[in-house]
Request: fold
Amino acid sequence: MSSKRMALRQSLIQRFWLYVSKTDTCWVWTGSKKCLTYGSIWCSSGKLLLAHRVSWELHNGEIPKGLWVLHKCDNPACVNPAHLFLGTPLDKMIDMDAKGRSRRLPIQPTKRHIGPGADLTWDEVREIRNHAMNKTKTHLEIATEFNVNQSTVTRIINKTTWKEL
Reply:
């Protein structure tokens, strides 16, 4: 690592610690907040970084591509590395559901959620379209019955997905 880059990184680390208030549990970010929730800090390149991600990298190293830094404590302002864990966007949704913070249908961690309507059969797709055509159930009721997201039902009905029928 070049000495210039090391100096810039050191500057970020020093500024990071200026905005951390350690309590018995959470380390609360007292600096700027993005969308009034997640701590944020500007790096020298002009990029806005999320404070909990900076904390993860300071304590654990680089965040692998495609993974998010999630909170065990449900405090978006917390930067305590003991309260952080890596996960996928699906892990985040499952965690939110488990903690009762989701406004969506409960997500079941099954193959069904790998891609839009993955795991459905053609018979199920026909049944979904029949319910919609006959107006016997709402999209939400259909989604609940087939254990898929409501948006998946809408895409099936509009033939955005499962076009072959």
Remarks:
- The chain is about 40% helix and 15% strand.
- Residues 82 and 143 are 37 Å apart (CA to CA).
- The two ends are 57 Å apart (CA to CA).
- The beta strands are 20-22, 27-29, 33-34, 38-42, 48-50, 68-71, 84-87.
